[in-house]
Amino acid sequence: MLPVAELRGLTPRDLNDRILTSTQPLLLRGLVAQWPMVRAALESQEAASAYLKRFYAGGPVVAMLGLPDIGGRFFYNDDISGFNFRPVHAPLNGVLDELEAHRNDEQPPAIYVGSTTIDACLPGFRSENDVDLGKDRDPLASIWIGNRTRIAAHYDAPDNLACVTAGRRRFTLFPPDQLPNLYVGPLDFTPAGQAISLVDLHAPDFERFPRFAEALEHAQVAEMEPGDALFIPSMWWHHVEALEAFNVLVNYWWRQSPHYMDTPTNALMYAIMTIRDLPPEQRKAWEGLFRHYVFEQDDDTAAHIPPAAQRMLAPMTEDMARALRAQLLKRMNR
Questions:
Q1: Distance (Å, rounded) from C-alpha 276 to C-alpha 280?
Q2: Where would I find the JmjC domain in this sequence (predicted)?
């Protein structure tokens, strides 16, 4: 595995389109090192917890709890009929106190608060700890809190800037073309919303998953300290390990497509339902249609149609997207 390419000496003001539209991961050493949250975490876990509690709005958060014997790996149960953890609704203050109580345990229970919207849970936090991604991006800012945990390799459709603010993390990333070698589990029954690789990165079973050896040859690794940030391009698979008894990560998700465009995941699900099980020749014909109208679409695709008559073949607009969505809903509800 190769290290992720690094950039040093940057501040949040130095982020630009070259970085934020990169098609390769980038480790941005010390990007948010001046955040008050990072400085509090470097002082102590107690100081970091107290800093977070200053902003806590009081509502419950969703915490994932696993027994000590899962070793921090949030995953399925043995037959993939369920999971090896349980979600609970709890006050954030209580979760922070529980993390403190188990800080010195040799085998602590796995505790993980994932993808919690900062502005709702910790209003005011971003006034002191934030990255300005520019007027053309409207990111969703989330916080992730836990002890030594592991999240299996998965992808996200948006671009992602992940900032370590407490503890240490290790990201292992795989390019999108390694999908066939990652042995991905169910698409519609997942631990936290995204489909995940079934391979245990710490103990890969190469007899069961032989192609994973090929994926490892293309993997990139980022070892991150407090204040470091990692840019993860859209659709890159990433396995995430939190390496300390107390870890906090802040991340920003945004899409390079207009806000009115739907997620491609819905198109994938619909294609599985409508195309995958067709006879081979029909599938091949639909493959050609998708290639022509989607994957290889260019200015010539609809050039033979008068512009006013191109309709959905013209460049997509918000009004057109709204009309198409209504048309699809009408068809699906028949």
A1: 9
A2: 111-269
Report whether 157 contacts 237 (CB < 8 A).
no
Question: Of how many residues is the chain composed?
Answer: 334
HEC string of the chain equals CEECCEEECCCHHHCCHHHHCCCCCEEEECCCCCCHHHHHHHHCHHHHHHHHHHHCCCCEEEEEEECHHHCCEECECCCCCCECCEEEEEEHHHHHHHHHHCCCCCCCCEEEEEEEEHHHHCCCHHHHCCCCCCCCCCCEEEEEEECCCEEEEECCCCEEEEEEEECCEEEEEECHHHHHHCCECCCCCCCCCCCEECCCCCCCCCCCCCCHHHHHHCCEEEEECCCCEEEECCCCEEEEEECCCCEEEEEEEECCCCCCCCCHHHHHHHHHHHCCCCCHHHHHHHHHHHHHHHHCCCCCCCCCCCHHHCHHHCCCCHHHHHHHHHHHHHHHCC
Q: How confident is the model at residue 332 (pLDDT cuts 50, 70, 90)?
A: confident
pLDDT in tens, 28-82: 999 999 999 999 999 999 999 999 999 999 999 999 999 999 999 999 999 999 9
Cα–Cα distance for residue pair 321/37, rounded to 1 Å = 41
Q: Which domains does the chain have, with CATH numbers?
A: 2-254 (2.60.120.650), 264-332 (no CATH)
Q: How far apart are CA 55 and CA 164, in angstroms?
A: 18
The one-letter amino acid code at 81 reads S
Q: Is it the case that residue 173 has pLDDT exceeding 80?
A: yes
